[in-house]
Design a protein that fits this description.
It is a single chain. The longest helix has 31 residues, at 5-35. Strand 6 and strand 7 (145-150) form a beta hairpin. Helices cover 25% and strands 22% of the residues. The strands form 2 sheets. A 6-stranded antiparallel β-sheet has the order 3-4-8-7-6-5. A 3-stranded antiparallel β-sheet has the order 2-1-9, with no helix packed on it. It contains 3 helices and 9 strands, in the order αααβββββββββ. Mean pLDDT is 78; it is low at 1-5 and 14-43. The N and C termini lie far apart (53 Å). The protein is α+β, with helices and mostly antiparallel strands and 181 residues long.
Length: 181
């Protein structure tokens, strides 16, 4: 089957973005550190952990790639994609509370989606790694890559509170879930 010119263009853009990921990752981490004031920095400096230290702390290779190297898990692969039990979703790296299950909804995108964060638990960074402007969200405590924020929730055709437009599209590998008691 021949690729259409649009498909070839999308594939070329994806390949360029993949090649630029390492440079963008280093740039984003530098920018995030510059934007954080001294009072915002965690007492445990998770940002200096090596991959070996994260592995020793219990993260899998896949979790390290997603949270520390800004990779993305395959769509529809997260055990949290269709989980709607009551509880709290937290950062897999440092345990910071990120989302309540009450804010979770099925956006149909293939990753756990939320329309509201918990207590300003994330920082936002401009992401041009795909050639298109996106807003990356990172844990404000440990700088883990979580996913992206989009302003398109109202197009998801799901039941959301009136006026909601924000959709946090989050890698399930970046999350832990603690059920409500």
């Amino acid at each position: 089957m021949a690729l259409s010119s649009i498909s070839r263009s999308v594939l070329r853009n994806h390949m360029r973005a993949t090649q630029m990921t390492l440079c963008n990752d280093l740039y984003k981490k530098s920018l995030v550190r510059l934007l954080m004031s001294e009072s915002d920095k965690p007492s445990t400096d998770y940002k200096t952990y090596t991959d070996a230290e994260w592995k020793k702390a219990g993260l899998t290779d896949e979790q390290i790639q997603v949270t520390r190297h800004s990779a993305t898990e395959p769509p529809f692969s997260s055990p949290f994609e269709d989980k709607y039990a009551k509880g709290i979703y937290s950062c897999v790296c440092c345990g910071a509370e990120l989302f309540r299950s009450d804010y979770k909804f099925d956006s149909g995108c293939g990753w756990p989606s939320f329309y509201k964060e918990e207590n300003k638990s994330m920082i936002e960074v401009e992401d041009m790694s795909t050639g298109v402007m996106r807003i990356e969200v990172r844990c404000s405590n440990c700088d883990a890559h979580l996913g992206h924020r989009f302003e398109d929730a109202h197009f998801c055709n799901r039941k959301l509170p009136s006026g909601i437009t924000t959709r946090f599209c989050i890698n399930g590998l970046a999350l832990n879930f603690k059920p409500a008691k």
